[in-house]
Amino acid sequence: MNPPTPAETRPVQVFLPHRAGLPRLAPYFRNLWNRRHFAVELSRASMRSAHTNTFFGQFWLVIGPALNAAVYFLLVNVIRGGNAGPNFFMHLLAGLFAFNFIQAVMTNGATSVTKGGNLVLNTAFPLLLLPFSALRTAFFRFVPSLIILFAFFIYFDYFGSHAQHCVAATGVCEELNTIHFSPVMFMAIPAMLLIFVFAAGLSALMASVQIYFRDTTQILPYATRIWLYLSPVLYYADQMKPWMLKFEMFNPLYPLLGIWSESLVEGKMPPLTWWIASAAWAFGSLLVGVLFFMSREREFAVRI
Amino acid sequence: MIDEETGATIPTAPERAISDEIAISVQELDVTYRTTFEKRPTLKQAIVRLGRGKRSVKTVEALKNVSFDVNRGSVLGIVGHNGAGKSTLMRAIAGIVPPTQGRIEVVGRTSTLLSLGVGFNRALTGRENVILGGLAAGLTKDELEDRYERIAEFAGLGDFIDMPMNTYSSGMGARLAFSVAVHLDPDILLIDEALSTGDAVFKEKATARMQELVDNSSTMLLISHALRTIINMSTECIWLDHGKLMMRGNPEEVVDAYTEFVHVKKTSATMNDM
Question: Hey, where are the domains in chain A?
Answer without folding.
Answer: 37-303
